[in-house]
């Protein structure tokens, strides 16, 4: 059976205690051109995911992925842009679905791994969270690289960097639900609803909170 593909907002995806104390890379610390490119990718991603009709999303994600690749080419050392290139590709895979999405999730994994090699703390460990989501949502061997143990390791590293983050907690809760650990999933998801707002990410926050509530409603049935 094919696992479901889904976006990561992103995410995604820090290491353990040693990294928790280190400051995460923020948009304020980026070069202006990188920060502008990142903001554009994030805003467009949220508009596609939460505002566009479902039948229009795949083409829109494909165009956004090309935009992300151009941004990466212009700023190859920017971990945040590599992370978002991976997030966009993984979400495009979710919109496409089925075996046709497998090449996209491989591209997404490569981008996220590159982001980790450059700066594992970029964007509060978003690459860790996004990689974790990929590993539990794609099929396992021999179809693809899905692996629940790796998924859990990456998701926990994302939580180590962002223990109160909306995305890190949402994907951890979703993973726990997939594993049949619904009591723990409820705790994570309720914690997610307490996450602080992210300036400039209002649309993404609203959409993600709605997803958290929808999953909680399923668990409480």
TrEMBL record:
Residues annotated as transmembrane: none
Pfam families in UniProt: TPR_8
Claim: Signal is one of the keywords in the record: yes
Keywords: Signal
Gene3D superfamilies tied to this protein: Tetratricopeptide repeat domain
InterPro entries hit by this protein: TPR-like_helical_dom_sf, TPR_rpt
Signal peptide interval: 1-29
Keyword Signal among record annotations: yes
Name used for this protein in its record: Tetratricopeptide repeat protein
Organism: Halomonas koreensis
Source organism phylogeny: Bacteria, Pseudomonadati, Pseudomonadota, Gammaproteobacteria, Oceanospirillales
């Amino acid at each position: 059976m094919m696992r479901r593909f889904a976006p990561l907002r992103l995410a995604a995806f820090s290491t353990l205690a040693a990294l928790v104390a280190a400051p995460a890379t923020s948009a304020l610390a980026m070069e202006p051109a990188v920060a502008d490119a990142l903001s554009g990718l994030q805003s467009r991603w949220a508009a596609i995911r939460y505002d566009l009709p479902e039948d229009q999303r795949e083409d829109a994600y494909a165009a956004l992925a090309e935009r992300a690749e151009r941004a990466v080419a212009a700023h190859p050392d920017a971990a945040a842009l590599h992370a978002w290139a991976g997030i966009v590709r993984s979400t495009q895979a979710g919109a496409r679905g089925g075996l046709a999405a497998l090449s996209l999730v491989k591209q997404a994994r490569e981008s996220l791994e590159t982001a980790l090699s450059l700066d594992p703390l970029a964007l509060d460990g978003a690459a860790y969270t996004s990689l974790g989501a990929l590993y539990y949502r794609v099929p396992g061997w021999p179809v693809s690289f899905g692996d629940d143990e790796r998924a859990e390791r990456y998701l926990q590293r994302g939580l180590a960097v962002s223990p109160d983050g909306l995305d890190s907690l949402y994907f951890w809760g979703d993973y726990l639900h997939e594993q049949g650990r619904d009591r723990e999933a409820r705790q994570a998801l309720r914690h997610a609803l307490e996450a602080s707002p992210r300036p400039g990410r209002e649309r993404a926050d609203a959409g993600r909170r709605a997803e958290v509530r929808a999953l909680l409603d399923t668990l409480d049935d």
